[in-house]
Design goal:
The complex is a heterodimer of chains A (333) and B (95). Chain A is 65% helix and 2% strand. Chain A is an all-alpha fold. Chain A has a two-stranded antiparallel sheet. Chain B has a three-stranded antiparallel beta sheet with strand order 2-1-3, with helices on one face. Chain B is an alpha+beta fold. The chains are: A mainly alpha (333), B alpha+beta (95). At the A-B interface, helix 4, helix 5, helix 7 and helix 13 of A face strand 2 and helix 1 of B. Bound molecules: fe (ii) ion (FE2) (2 copies). The site of one fe (ii) ion has 5 residues of chain A, from helix 6 and helix 7.
């Protein structure tokens, strides 16, 4: 979306002129105007967005791995076609988001390098293993469900290219969640073994899904400025609560039990109360010590390294075609 | 990373017959041919288009946001360019 070549890097200092520009910038955001790549923006706004959008992109790309694991073993052709389409969508989401990040004056290569060297983070959820087919159902239902909860407000984000990418993504996500729920409901209404597979997947994916919303509001570092800049519209805890309230009845409808003894409808507050999250597990997984963290990075690096000759050959081929074209033109003259 | 970066292309799609092509996003490709193929995979997985244009991003010259007022403000005061500026007698009916 637009070209990074059009962006000029700002020299950032805290001169009075900058304070005035920053006030004007904030006023535009308060007016709900969209900020576009060539507009002036504070360096910290640019940095925050590059970090957030690229993390988001990396998550889509790494997120293809746990589900890709089951494409060849999907139980029917219908399920296989749907899963293939879903995983392909996630690749597309990664591309829309990288393109949005690139409008902020970073190159795709820099971003990919940050992922492959472990400098950049991606969502903790993709560091868990997909052990059974039911996990594919649980991921679509819970993980994509949580992602949708998080992404809908981002469609109104103040940065134009990010907001537009999110609109495209949200349109595609709802199929992901529905196909996951369909898998879960088929299993939950199947044989006792199938039902217990569904229950087992819920047991393992529920808490990691709640962790997807990030640290609790008391500990989240970037929230205040992100809210002021309208990069974020709701706090982590608010979104997590919304997700719980929307998802618990869907699980009950399948006759499944959530792995939380404290989960209970709170009539007065009109919401579900739920038990404490294991933040130590979250910290471990985010810092690269999740059950599959090493595998995921290894798989990404392998794909990148083994694809290098294809990228080089494509460039060489394009250069050859171009020089032939030039030669043919000269010969014709 | 020693590889050369792939050029960036802007993608425009005609969503329905009779509509103009509209900017939908961008992608990297080694040349225009590959950009078309990739645009088809990335931006038209659900019948979003009937026709695709790809343009090297470097070929686009954009107006400077700093010139916004100079360029577009003058039009605001020229309300006589709009039909509602003119009075037509009621008995003439719709015009
Ligand atoms: Fe996605
Ligand atoms: Fe998804």
């Amino acid at each position: 979306m637009y070209t990074q070549g059009l962006n000029t890097k700002e020299a950032h200092s805290s001169s009075p002129a900058d304070a005035a520009r920053e006030a004007r910038f904030q006023a535009r955001i308060d007016e709900d105007e969209k900020i576009e790549p060539n507009d002036w923006m504070p360096a910290a706004y640019r940095r925050t967005l590059v970090r957030q959008i690229s993390q988001h992109a990396h998550s889509e790309i790494v997120g293809m791995l746990p589900e890709g694991n089951w494409i060849t073993r999907a139980p029917t052709l219908r399920r296989k076609a749907a899963l293939l389409a879903k995983v392909q969508d996630e690749g597309g989401h990664g591309l829309y988001l990288y393109a949005a990040a690139e409008t902020l004056d970073v190159t795709r290569e820099e971003l990919v390098e940050q992922l492959l060297t472990g400098k950049a983070k991606y969502s903790s959820i993709f560091n868990y293993p997909t052990l059974t087919w039911a996990d594919i159902g649980a991921i679509g239902w819970l993980v994509d469900g949580a992602a949708i909860m998080n992404q809908i407000p981002l469609c109104r984000c103040s940065f134009g290219p990010y907001a537009r990418a999110m609109i495209r993504i949200c349109k595609e996500e709802s199929f992901h969640q529905r196909q996951g729920y369909e898998i879960m409901s088929t299993l939950a209404r199947g044989t006792p073994e199938q039902k217990s597979m569904a229950q087992d997947a819920l047991d393992r994916w529920w808490w990691p899904s709640l962790m997807m919303f990030g640290p609790s509001d008391k500990e989240s570092q970037h929230s205040d400025t992100s809210m002021r800049w309208k990069i974020k519209r709701f706090s982590n805890d608010d979104l997590r609560q919304k997700f719980v309230d929307a998802t618990v009845p869907q699980g009950h409808a399948l006759g499944l039990v959530f792995p939380d003894a404290q989960l209970k409808w709170n009539e007065a507050a009109a919401r579900f109360d739920f038990g404490p999250i294991d933040w130590e597990e979250f910290r471990q997984v985010v810092s690269g010590n999740g059950p599959c963290s090493k595998d995921r990075m290894r798989a990404r690096r392998k794909a990148h390294d083994e694809g290098a000759w294809v990228r080089e050959a494509a460039m060489a081929h394009a250069a050859k075609l171009q020089s032939r074209e030039v030669a043919a033109k000269l010969a014709a003259e | 990373m020693t590889e050369a970066n792939w050029p960036l292309f802007e993608v425009f799609i005609r969503s329905r017959g009779g509509m103009s092509h509209r900017h939908v996003g961008s992608l990297h490709a080694v040349d225009a041919e590959m950009a078309l193929q990739n645009a088809r995979d990335v931006y038209t997985r659900r019948g979003e288009g009937l026709s695709i244009w790809v343009v090297p991003s470097s070929a686009i010259k954009a107006s400077d946001p700093g010139d916004k007022e100079m360029l577009f403000e003058p039009a605001n005061s020229k309300i006589y360019r709009h039909p509602t500026f003119y009075k037509v007698p009621k008995d003439v009916g719709h015009m």
